[in-house]
Design goal:
Helix content: over 70%
CATH superfamily of the largest domain: MetI-like
Strand content: under 5%
Structural class: mainly alpha
Shape: globular
Number of domains: 2
Number of helices: 14
Number of strands: 0
CATH class of the largest domain: Mainly Alpha
């Protein structure tokens, strides 16, 4: 018995073509879904809540004298800490790669201690060491009258402590991959050690140094646990922006906390754009050191 049903036409079986931007692999779909849930939606929700207060009130809450003081302390000290680690981090990476000494492996493993150590524990240790009767704080106070703990100086030291590994770990593998033949060729051509460092080694390390400084700066800006332990948290003295946000939340001032957090986010994004531009310049310098 033959069927009276006609076969479906190819046009009916053909599925509508999807736009090119939707024709993504499963890895891309999972990536966008995960980023949307973890990153984009929380940031978008905060942006919408901050925008709900209106532009006039947003400006008033974001530019209070207390908030402006915390911006200067947080972003200024984070930048200083990142630049200081940019210098000493390169020196430490050089010693770990190019020098051989007793305890080198132990020192190499201790560099990662700020990654594994809880930030509150790190802040408690720094506050104890740099207090007026601590191992380092007592001689500094006795000899120079310099008080570290519960001042802005202690905040800067805490930021340097937690951001140092980023520079070392960024520079170390690049330094290990450098060919010593280039330096030897420069020496054979009459270059001094200083000229070899500035003209041969440093241009190749510059992108890694800038990347480490950028990561350390971003980490220091958002640090809270270690800083709150070594800071007196007094406004206009050493109060940082994350601590101010926590204080506003404890006072149930959610609008101020959201607005200040949004300002901090925008400052961080602008800073990262500037640092990424410096990294591009560093790569250009690597290819054209002249």
């Amino acid at each position: 018995m033959t069927s009276s049903m006609a076969p479906a036409s190819p046009a009916r079986l053909r599925r509508p073509a999807l736009p090119s931007w939707l024709q993504l692999s499963w890895s891309w779909r999972i990536t966008w879904l995960y980023l949307a849930l973890v990153l984009f939606l929380p940031l978008g929700a905060m942006a919408l809540k901050a925008a709900a207060v209106g532009p006039v009130q947003f400006w008033q809450l974001a530019t209070t004298a207390e908030a402006l003081a915390t911006y200067r302390i947080s972003f200024g000290l984070a930048l200083v800490a990142a630049l200081v680690n940019g210098v000493f981090g390169v020196v430490i990476a050089w010693a770990l790669v190019r020098c051989s000494f007793f305890g080198r492996r132990l020192l190499d493993s201790l560099i990662d201690l700020p990654f594994a150590l809880p930030t509150a524990v790190a802040g408690l240790a720094l506050a104890s060491i740099y207090s007026s009767n601590g191992w380092l704080g007592a001689p500094l106070y006795a000899l120079f009258g310099l008080k570290v703990s519960f001042t802005w100086l202690g905040v800067g030291i805490a930021m340097m402590f937690i951001s140092l590994p980023f520079v070392v770990r960024s520079v170390e593998p690049v330094l290990e991959a450098l060919e010593r033949e280039q330096e030897e060729a420069a020496w054979c051509l009459g270059a001094s050690p200083r000229q070899t460092l500035l003209k041969v080694v440093l241009p190749q390390l510059m992108p890694a140094i800038l990347a480490g400084v950028a990561q350390g700066y971003s980490r220091a800006v958002g640090e809270y646990g270690s800083v709150v332990m070594i800071s007196s948290n007094v406004p206009f003295r050493d109060l940082i922006t994350p601590t101010l946000i926590i204080q506003k939340l404890e006072e149930y001032d959610f609008s101020s906390a959201t607005v200040i957090g949004m300002v901090m986010l925008m400052f961080s994004l602008v800073s990262l754009l500037v640092i990424n531009g410096l990294q591009v310049w560093g790569r250009h310098w690597e290819g054209n050191p002249a």
